Amino acid sequence: MLVLLPPSETKQPGGEGPPLDLAALTAPELTPVRAQLVDALVALSADVPAARAALGLSAKQDDEIARNAALRTSPTLPAIERYTGVLYDALDVRSLTRAQRARAATRLAVGSALFGVVRAGDPVPAYRLSAGSALPGLPTLRSLWKPALTDVLTATGELVVDLRSGAYAELAPVPDAVTVQVLSERPDGTRAVVSHFNKAHKGRLARLLATTTAEPDSVVRLRALLRRNGLHVEHPGGSELVLVVPADAVTR
């Protein structure tokens, strides 16, 4: 099972790993696109106003541009520790046991505008590039990533659980991947789409999938696994699951 997570705009700074080695990342066949984007970001960083415009940053975020300028020389962290925010707080990899961490390393991957996809243990530097960014002189990120990245993600032979947000899923759609919608249910039975706290619920779901000893190989077996673990999960058809949470649990 491969669980695809969205990245985060925020990144943990620093690190103790060696500088970026693109060839050492998962799926080395993606190296040409990765190198093209790294070179473009480093070059763009020399023109701060242009970098702000391309990346949607304000003057208060110039430190993000400085990070991009140092992409090839700055220290790295495992990808699963580099990304931060609501989903990653809920995933809470630092609290996993050694055995759980090893299992998570084989199952978790992060979609990335810069690297396409990285496995949990891949060493990456802090950077700033979003799925919707447009880099001067280059095609759209979707045009760059879709041909190669979709093949990489579909060639694993594993059940893919795609928890990426819409913009990142569009970079490289995975046919037949299991997707999860989070709905809140009020006492009167009415339901609503969960927006911000959707990330927290998906983080908890990712933690469960990363650490379970089960190996579901279909959407039906995945639903059964989640239900055995106390989650209210519905399967309306196809490869979509619906995670239903009580309205009073939406903010927890």
TrEMBL record:
This is Peroxide stress protein YaaA. Signal peptide: none annotated. One of its GO terms (cellular component) is cytosol. Pfam families: H2O2_YaaD. One of its GO terms (biological process) is response to hydroperoxide. InterPro entries: YaaA. The lineage of its organism: Bacteria, Bacillati, Actinomycetota, Actinomycetes, Geodermatophilales. It comes from the Bacteria.
